[in-house]
């Protein structure tokens, strides 16, 4: 196929940070050319798990990519995994997924889309629930789907392979999950499917199963790295709320959390969370502020981002107090650990202890070291670099 | 559980030649006692593959066992595998099973039952087609069934294990076959399932899956050895017609074929195909005649068995000609190989060549050695010990 220069360039831009299988950037360029030749938009699929409707910056990596496709006039197809969610996950995993009712699935999906709207135009996307076709599959349909692949192939999937080799149980029903999401690609006629790199196997399975059902040029898989949370160590996830940057975080929290990432995480955040390029010649602090400003601007607008930046400069860099502090009335003496967790400064008491042990908690400018301490007077409480409360004691 | 002497004795008799899992003869005795305590018959299941309706002596091993249960007043439940047959077997096996229509399944099942009637009282058996419950399973039902076992467990099945280890493909749908037949046991509430020893895994899976669906005391598995064909080497099967003794074979063929088995196969035939005991003190030829007579009597009646025995003595032992020979008119000279195969004396020309090479073909009492020979005169043709034709040349 002759690829026009234009589509090669588009493909290169779209491929930023992504891995594409098969055929890399050329595979994507061919899809773009095909769509132009056939005078139709590409169908770009993303599967959503409606059991966890809270979105964080990690999710935006893929969503931002969808938006680029949308800007080029292609069609985004969002698949809510209703069928799977309604069955639940009976596997031997420590973290089992609960079965959800249809109502819960729809409600979660709604929350999901509201948050997604911050990153792309959901109203222009095709939204489908795979319960609509999977639940109506007959016995014969299911067996046909099951005959589309081999046991050995599914066992090559990394997590299955590890579990099989270490004799941890894999339920036969789990073999159906990759097949079901692959069948979604058949139904929606996806040209491209996006996902995290942990989804590579499933996405390629989608291509194979499309092929089995007679779709000759199946979807290409476009996978994007998972990003680490603010500690730079563990994958960003709601499971570690203190290192997770949610789309529902306030502009000041978002800005401040981004400022707390380790310097070596900056290139990855630049690459995957923005359209800007990381400049290693710059002063790291300035470069991090540029990153924090850019991302906060995306989800809260320029004014809020500027406000957050000013406050950060004021309180963290100039050690001033923030302009607007939460005022908290104490009616009786309160233990410092209880107070910190009640104010949501840390997600747990053990986190509060750790913060105190690290010298991160101050009352009226004095470090607190005694976790037994009861606060029984008015004053400014500070936890970490950016969290303040004005305590008013009325005991 | 306290087992009455009577049921222990019954169990010992029923167990002749069989392996019982779990708990061997005691497991069976407990089932018999339970049925008596609950004042109900046991439900004894056998699954039938309606793709191959021709029955041979190998099938009667299990059928005879069913008859014993029937004689003790228990209920035989015959499951026609309509659901599986209608799907066909898409596995990587060299010998793939074709998908059958519902009509074909019913027709094959009918033939099957007609032949089965020679070994047990089909009219008193419950006959079911698993298409009746499997085909109406929904998506959620199927996933529930799939969640009843693990991949590792299914991969312990001998044939799967071998194929997995030697990298021969196993389709995911094949994982459903053991689950489906196991689900049959749930539906029909089987107390005991019978099968060949190659079915041990499936039968125990039936017990496990019953358990998953809340049946506490699941079925026990009663497996019986597969018997070899008349060559004593390969499992009896239609695939090797010259070594296979069909229930539709004439009384003379049946008797003659049994007389052709190697002596060392006699004890197994006695054990599994009759109620008689092999007597190693007897002259082997007499013992084999007793066996051939007994089996022929079962499927053709005493008169026919006696007739077959007399002919055998007459033509094989006393080298006389049989009383009733087929008369064949030849209108032109016919090649000896063509003639032998046309008369169905051997199933193929290569078999005919082998028979000639072994000195097994005679014309008018003279051995034939030339496979190019054309027969152009009247006379008696003999192939092997028992096959004769009277050729009448009218060329």
Mean pLDDT across residues of chain A? 89
Structural class of chain A: alpha/beta
**Sheet with most strands: strand arrangement of chain A:** 1-6-5-2-3-4
The string of secondary-structure elements of chain A, in order, is HEHEHEHHEHHHHHEHEHHHEEHHEEEEE
Radius of gyration of chain A over all CA atoms, rounded: 24 Å
Feature tags:
395 residues; alpha/beta; 16 helices; six-stranded mixed β-sheet; homodimer; five-stranded mixed β-sheet; 13 strands
Summarize the structure in words:
The structure is a homodimer of 395-residue chains. By secondary structure, chain A is of the alpha/beta class. In chain A, 45% of the residues lie in helices and 14% in strands. Chain A has 16 helices and 13 strands. A 6-stranded mixed β-sheet of chain A has the order 1-6-5-2-3-4, sandwiched between helices. The longest helix of chain A is centred in the last third of the chain and has 34 residues, at 284-317. Chain A is globular. Chain A starts with a helix and ends with a strand. Mean pLDDT of chain A is 89; it is low at 90-96. The interface between A and B is large, with 36 and 36 residues.
Secondary structure layout:
The structure is a homodimer of 395-residue chains.
Chain A (H helix, E strand, L loop, with lengths): L4 H10 L4 E3 L2 H14 L5 E6 L8 H15 L3 E6 L1 H6 L14 H15 L9 E4 L1 H4 L4 H8 L4 H5 L2 H8 L10 H13 L3 E5 L3 H13 L7 E5 L26 H9 L6 H8 L10 H34 L8 E5 L3 E2 H7 L6 H9 L3 E3 L2 E2 L6 E2 L3 E5 L3 E7 L2
Parallel strand pairs in A: 2-3, 2-5, 3-4, 5-6, 7-13
Antiparallel strand pairs in A: 1-6, 8-11, 9-10, 9-12, 12-13
